[in-house]
Amino acid sequence: MIRSIMRDPAFLSQPSQEAVKGDSQVGRDLDDTLRANCEKCVGMAANMIGIRKRVIVINPGVGPFNLVMYNPVLVRTEGPYETEEGCLSLSGTRRTKRFREIEVEFLNARWEKHRMCFSGFAAQIIQHEIDHLNGILI
Q1: CATH of the domain at 37
Q2: Is-contact 68 27, C-beta < 8 A?
Q3: What is the pTM of this model?
Q4: Which of 23, 30, 43, 95 is exposed most, by the fewest CB atoms within 10 A?
């Protein structure tokens, strides 16, 4: 289901709770909402649709499919750099530090544990969305 975008900084600043198997619908709603906003957004966190759960979705730009991650955790970072980012939930852009290469551990839609490496823009998107889960606004 396509959800409305949360724009309240007080809500977005709160850390999210761990996702559990019963939260699968959150991932589907995030995926639907990202698809509905694909012209202006490449990733979303559950708090952006008003749900404080550790779920993100990204479009890594390598095909028509989005990647939903439950409880993502950065396990390795490499190559720090400064960049400027915008956010669908907030107006304007802000400077931030990101890493060129990351490794992420997460649960997929079947609740199987995965570890994947990302670089470039996909890595930047994931870091932005994990910041959302931690209540960090960029």
Answers
A1: 3.90.45.10
A2: yes
A3: 0.95
A4: 95
Decide if 21 is inside a domain. yes
CA distance 99 to 120: 8
Rounded Cα gap, residues 48 and 6, in angstroms:
5
Q: Please, what sign has the CA dihedral across residues 58, 14, 12, 97?
A: negative
- DSSP for 57-93, written as a single string: EE--SSSS--EEEEEEEEEEEEEEEEEEEEETTEEEE
Cβ neighbourhood burial of 8 (10 Å; 0-12, 13-18, 19+): exposed
Host domain of residue 45: 9-133
pLDDT tens, 7-62? 999 999 999 999 999 999 999 999 999 999 988 899 999 999 999 999 999 997 76
Please report whether residue 72 resides in a domain.
yes
Has residue 2 been placed in a domain?
A: no
Q: Which residues are catalytic?
A: 129
